[in-house]
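Go through this fold for my students:
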Amino acid sequence: MSGSTVADGQTLRVALIDRVRGVLAIPTATVETLAIALLARGHVLIEGIPGVGKTLLARTLASCVGATFRRIQFTNDLLPSDVVGSVVWRPKREEFEFVRGPLFANVVLADEINRTSPRTLSCMLEAMERGKVSVEDRTLTLAEPFFVLATRNGVEFHGTYPMPEAALDRFMLRVELGYPEAAQELALYLGDDPEDRLAAMEPVLTLGALADAMRGVEQVEVRQPVAAYCHRLVAATRATASFALGASPRAALLWLRAARARAFLHGRDYVVPDDLQKLLLPVLGHRTFLAGGGDPGDALRQILASTLVDL
């Protein structure tokens, strides 16, 4: 896929959906959302109850692109050094050596990220934003690409904490993983093992080809009328009385980046309003907050329905 074109993007979307759904039966839209975040150099927050396949999904996506994968189980006693790594003394060589932590991988699953302390969470979020970490007096660059999938359990679960707005804003997209379909769950009961299918799966592309695809996404055009439509939508979230916090300029920029990736995956070199509309809830659902609390989904849909496209 050297010098990726939009036609390659369309082929890539079909192949990724086919590979991931060949391992575990999750909605096509969920697979596409993850692919969008990966190609747009964003990170994803996955919500859902424990035991529905979030770890398997992350491992499958990493295998699809030939990427290294590490999982970090977040707990309330996890330290930044457990994530980033630490400097240790080697007596035989009489020197210090930096031992890299699990953060140095292409795809990192931050499992139950809302169980950890603010200090460790801050370290993780800094790495996600900068693609670098600071250790002692050195700055180290993380893997390229660097893609974080973080799971968040509901705050009603024991030992979990609400994530601050600034932390949620670091995630480009949010998806929810629910219970499997009845037929799939019954197959699991009868001995069907998705691990066997994952072990036999061939990658869709290499990391080098993935880098080509990312550069292809960056060439997708956002024309002025589409940018103006995006601005009308985010401005409406700030002007609507039911919202305590509307979408920020950074949210709009990430929305447009994600829209570029979606356009690429659908075989276009330009963004259309439908790209923004399909990504409304994954991008803004965790960045906008109602004055009375609760899910802003209905309010966002009302804004979408009442905002003129006007291209």
